[in-house]
Design goal:
380 residues; alpha/beta; TIM Barrel; Lyase, Ornithine Decarboxylase, Chain A, domain 1; 24% strand
């Protein structure tokens, strides 16, 4: 065992798998699609936005990045990432001028945004490039595909310092086998675009396809696609499986045993005494807990991997530690490696499995692995 800051717990990120996943998705793209937007919001779904962004910067068909917040976008610029950045969510006005100076694209869908963006662009001395957000069926931010939506888009030409670079929407149900609802959304989106183009309003970049649509709905690829969860080798849903398409997860979560003790039959383990040994057992302490993003809901039902064997969690997962039963694992000793997520021997714990078992899901699970967990970037 190495004796360093990664000994307690470490998220191991395989960058070769990132490149593999990109190639698989690139092979799925329709002939007219120009490339991908890498969705690296929420610190690249917990994988490290700056570190992975530097890899994406070198991939020609990755045309830019998407974040959720102004702060995420500025962080990428501070890391010297040069490609276009689009903020997918609502941006508060305080950030407009800095974003325009940094050549970050803002999603627009309200008149008051246009007024303030135009003022900020004038102050910055440069044009603001925006993407119109359209709600085709999610029921959240975005103009509707109706006359009001058209009028909003047409009104943008009244603002001297705003340039329309793109228009986009987001699927609510592309991650289902039945794509009929996604097709309905796509048709609404195309209908609004057609109406705008007949009025002389053109969009250099049109995008609606998310991860599930990249893999299984090529009609929606348009000019660009947005690669999110599949960048990281994780499944968009139970119905759209990443492994079936050859994608591989980037992240494994590793730790080490720090203590082993013999406990007698009838001994209680952890808070509340919810686990009581039914015989004499060997119990190992792992220095990881829900403070690191490991789900407390796996108390008394999850397991970790040691020497390729399953070690069941005993009692409640604590903030910083958990206890597991190693009685039946041969030759186990203190400082042996523990796999909380990933592969060990013939056994594999996926983010999807942990999500299902904990009553959460894979997106949430990897995003919740906190910054006190160091990331280690490796190649296969």
């Amino acid at each position: 065992m190495d004796n360093n800051e990664m000994s307690r717990v470490c998220a191991v990120i395989n960058t070769d798998n990132l490149k593999l996943n990109l190639e698989i998705m690139h092979d799925c793209l329709s002939d007219d699609c120009r490339g991908m937007i890498g969705v690296i919001k929420t610190d690249a779904y917990g994988h490290g936005a700056v570190e992975l962004g530097k890899i994406l910067e070198e991939i020609p068909y990755v045309k830019g990045y998407a974040t959720a917040t102004a702060e995420e976008a500025i962080l990428l610029r501070r890391a010297n990432l040069k490609k276009p950045i689009l903020i997918l969510g609502y941006v508060f006005p305080y950030a407009y001028e800095e974003l325009i100076r940094e050549d970050v694209r803002i999603a627009v869908f309200k008149e008051d945004m246009l007024i303030k963006i135009d003022e900020a662009a004038q102050n910055a001395g440069k044009s603001a490039h925006v993407h119109v957000k359209v709600d085709t069926g999610m029921g959240r931010i975005g103009v509707n595909c109706d006359e009001d939506g058209f009028k909003f888009i047409k009104s943008i030409e009244n603002y001297e310092h705003i340039k329309i670079e793109g228009i986009f929407s987001h699927f609510a149900r592309a991650d289902e086998v039945d794509k009929s609802k996604a097709k309905d959304q796509l048709e609404r989106f195309k209908s609004l675009i057609d109406k705008c183009e007949k009025a002389g309003i053109y969009f250099p970049v049109k995008h609606i396809a998310n991860s599930a649509a990249i893999l299984e709905f090529s009609e929606a690829h348009l000019d660009l696609v947005r690669a999110g969860i599949t960048l990281y080798g994780l499944s968009p849903s139970d119905e759209v499986s990443a492994p079936l398409h050859g994608l591989k997860p980037l992240m494994e979560l590793k730790s080490h045993i720090v203590y082993i003790k013999e406990v007698k039959k009838g001994s209680a383990i952890s808070y509340g005494g919810t686990y009581v040994a039914d015989s004499d057992r060997r119990i190992a302490t792992i220095p990881v807990g829900y403070g690191d993003g490991y789900p407390r809901s796996l108390s008394n039902k999850g397991y970790v991997l040691i020497h390729g064997y399953r070690a069941p969690i005993c009692g409640r997962v604590c903030m910083d530690q958990m206890m597991v039963d190693v009685t039946d694992i041969p030759d186990v000793k203190e400082y042996d490696e523990v796999t909380l997520m990933g592969k060990d021997g013939d056994e594999f714990i996926s983010a999807e499995f942990l999500g299902d078992m904990s009553g959460r899901f894979n997106y949430e699970l990897v995003c919740d692995i906190g910054r006190r967990v160091p990331r280690k970037y490796v190649k296969t």
